[in-house]
Amino acid sequence: MTPITDVEGRRLALSNLDKVLYPATGFTKGEVLHYYATTAPVLLPHLRDRPVSFLRYPDGPDGQVFFTKNVPPGTPDWVTTAEVPRVEGPARMVLVQDLASLIWAANLVTEFHTPQWVIAAPGDADRLVLDLDPGPPAGVVECCRVALWLRERLAADGIDAFAKTSGSKGLHLLAAVRDATSQQVSEYAKALAVEAERDLPRLVVHRMTRSLRPGKVFVDWSQNAARKTTATPYTLRARPEPTVSTPLTWDEVAESEQGPVGSSLVLHAPDLAGRVREYGDLLAPLLDPATAARLP
Fold first, then answer.
1. Would you say the pTM of this structure is higher than 0.90?
2. In whole angstroms, what is the distance from residue 261 CA to residue 244 CA?
3. Fewer CB within a 10 Å sphere, N or C end of the chain?
4. Residue 59 and residue 219: Cα distance in Å, rounded?
5. pLDDT tens across 197-236, in order?
6. Residue 34 burial (CB < 10 Å; 0-12/13-18/19+)?
């Protein structure tokens, strides 16, 4: 029998709570839902007002994994949806605005991915993102070195950068921006990536070409395009273990840049409660319009 629970006045049927989704650690679907419920105070502000794309893995990361942009069949009528412009024509997508819709979505077993703009202004960027993706044998240590260079370079333009793990192999750098289109932010981000490659030629590559990437960090600037999305802060990832895209302090990045402690930057769902108690939301400044910078 599927349990029914009340979440902020909404009745939700939560299925297969004992199902193990991450066999390496025995992490269950019930624990996934508990993680999202307890992380909601810091996660929801980064989801709110942004159309959500879901990476679904109902049988765990080793099973079928598929990306959903349109409103899933069976979505309750109380879940907020909005029409979103796309190159191929408008589509209706979900907005996760509250705890009830977060738990409903988490019951589908999802990663959350969001664009760098809000639904009130599609294509007008309020965030800049740089995805640092290491090509083996490079790893997170090399990503940290590149992140520190980019932080300093962004600061020279009056832009404060914030770091989080991707929840996979690399790091994401985020910054709040204003008065810029997605196209303008993409062009600026590409210029940064090209400059990083020029300054750190043995460490950085700005092109996606696979043959160029072994041993280097690919600075992916393309996720600033209006049609692209990035893993939302605090989302679980569809990896062998329940890793989370976790905000970091710059001290953690600097310490990891020094060597093997970089492995400590792989954060899992059980790690987050303590981190949130200690730090709060390290990405909260991204939500404050007063921190947003104009591009040079």
1. yes
2. 18
3. N
4. 32
5. 999 999 999 988 777 788 999 999 999 999 999 999 999 9
6. middle
